[in-house]
Amino acid sequence: MSDEFYLSLAINKAWDYQLLTYPNPAVGAVILDENGKILSICAHQKAGEAHAELNATKEALESKDSSLKSIFAAAKNPNELYNLIIQNHRNLLKNSTYYVTLEPCAHQGKTPPCASLILAMGAKRVVIGSRDYGEHAKGGAEFLTQNGVEVKLDVCKTRCDELLEPFLRWQSGNFTFFKIALTQNGVATGGVISNLASRTHTHRLRALAELMVVGGATVCTDRPTLDARLISGRAPDILIYSSKTEFDLQIPLFNIPNRKIEISNSIEPAFKKRFVMIEGGENFLRNLDSRVDWILIYRSNEFKSANNINLDMKVKILHRSIFGDGELLWCKRLDLGINA
Amino acid sequence: MSDEFYLSLAINKAWDYQLLTYPNPAVGAVILDENGKILSICAHQKAGEAHAELNATKEALESKDSSLKSIFAAAKNPNELYNLIIQNHRNLLKNSTYYVTLEPCAHQGKTPPCASLILAMGAKRVVIGSRDYGEHAKGGAEFLTQNGVEVKLDVCKTRCDELLEPFLRWQSGNFTFFKIALTQNGVATGGVISNLASRTHTHRLRALAELMVVGGATVCTDRPTLDARLISGRAPDILIYSSKTEFDLQIPLFNIPNRKIEISNSIEPAFKKRFVMIEGGENFLRNLDSRVDWILIYRSNEFKSANNINLDMKVKILHRSIFGDGELLWCKRLDLGINA
């Protein structure tokens, strides 16, 4: 099978944690042993937890020797895991191949550099999607090459760069996505369209977003809570985008402790935040025009006898995740974005 | 990686040729070598051509020894390929693992039995999705077990059974699918929604369908040709479902040589055919009610400012194929079908 095939496995895995790694990039890694057998397909899952390479290395070693599981389980943090791996790997990954969607980091962050880890494992070859241009982390490919590891760059480059878009926009100041639930025939209204799995995913995103924007009409009509109760997560701060200045304070969203709420007839304050999530319907999406980077469409498995959201817009579908009987489409507006 | 992981690769490959194998089932196969490396991911592509197992065996052997390519290229048909493989495999697939979405056939059809091929290769293990209950082909798993090959059955059974649905319905008399092109927001009207890749796929299906059904209103409004010119294929016979009995014979569809056209205010004649394709819009789909097995939705990458198709219906999304900037959703009506 081709390098593209194996890197695609890493890309798809990384998408499972897209945005959930905030403020870190979504990264996936695949390891093949010296005979070309797949040992692990892993991703970075959450900021502060292990990088994709570390996760994949752990799983690959455990698949070679399951007795390592109890040893690695003792690690209380990624740093300890890193050290336990260095002490216990017994060259089990000698001559392995690493596939990584992003160039392995070369810097000491919360964990030691992934490039050093890969070298310590005795990897023969590293296939990389996107290059890391970050001032701190860059240099992993060069480090590996200088130490005799064969490095191939820019494989599935477009897809790996797309995976990095939110991260690059967080770094440059703001990433904003619009979340909407639609039926198969484009209906956004009339009761809950999303299923429990997709609502749980929404709550995960809410718990991470710096700010959540919602329209005044939605607040009055739906009387929402807009918290992250399904994952017992932090409720996001709210910007109510509305020309109205007074709302019924009995609406649940106003009664969440430690939540900041701003009411504004301008959406500009939102774009000063790094990670912004917008939930709304047709009018909101149309009015926001070109200010949205990505649109996340939760699509149910139903056709519903009702009117669709009615607007002109072209998207690129970057990825599709399955959520129970529905799906989540990760879409990019085609007329903007960092690569447009 | 799990058996489910490898069988999923075979399932996804088989979907690439779903319906195009008519009247044969869509089948996929994956082969791992003795060390667990993936050697091939193949499918049955077309009736009369090689079965999935034969295609996968050829590709696996070629990946072990590329000089076999020129030898196998000399085969003029699947039978010759089978024999060339038997003569030249040099035990390169000794102790391999086969993953097959459908139990390998045990009968001499247009090619010798796949079960015998797998045994001849020296496979150690065969992982199977659906069982073959067909009077002629069944018995492959038993044959392999009796000859010392480890066989695992019913892996990813639901997904493999779904893959077989059209085949089982062809066998029992009729499989009917409805094809519709929709925008992201459920609009079916207003010019060409599908792209070249999806239109080519439609023409492939037309060339295979025993009968194509289209509504009288569509005939008058769109003045279509309804042939398979994009693949230089046979234009299907047509049933115009209409209370009208007279049409403008200048409409291109009436001027295709060797095409039978029936005009009827009943759709019943269609369901006497084995493989029926319906192309139409909202009203047609609503009126057909529960007579459709599958709905194929070509979804474009656009939102369009227009009304949606407006009906109630619940589907199960069985698979998604990418076609250029759009996608094809393979959907099953949830309130009927062989498994419902």
From TrEMBL, chains A, B:
<dbReference type="Pfam" id="PF00383">
    <property type="entry name" value="dCMP_cyt_deam_1"/>
</dbReference>
<dbReference type="GO" id="GO:0008703">
    <property type="term" value="F:5-amino-6-(5-phosphoribosylamino)uracil reductase activity"/>
</dbReference>
<protein>
    <submittedName>
        <fullName>Diaminohydroxyphosphoribosylaminopyrimidine deaminase / 5-amino-6-(5-phosphoribosylamino)uracil reductase</fullName>
        <ecNumber>1.1.1.193</ecNumber>
        <ecNumber>3.5.4.26</ecNumber>
    </submittedName>
</protein>
<keyword id="KW-0378">Hydrolase</keyword>
<keyword id="KW-0560">Oxidoreductase</keyword>
<comment type="pathway">
    <text>Cofactor biosynthesis; riboflavin biosynthesis.</text>
</comment>
<dbReference type="GO" id="GO:0008835">
    <property type="term" value="F:diaminohydroxyphosphoribosylaminopyrimidine deaminase activity"/>
</dbReference>
<dbReference type="InterPro" id="IPR024072">
    <property type="entry name" value="DHFR-like_dom_sf"/>
</dbReference>
<dbReference type="GO" id="GO:0009231">
    <property type="term" value="P:riboflavin biosynthetic process"/>
</dbReference>
<dbReference type="InterPro" id="IPR002125">
    <property type="entry name" value="CMP_dCMP_dom"/>
</dbReference>
<dbReference type="InterPro" id="IPR016193">
    <property type="entry name" value="Cytidine_deaminase-like"/>
</dbReference>
<dbReference type="InterPro" id="IPR004794">
    <property type="entry name" value="Eubact_RibD"/>
</dbReference>
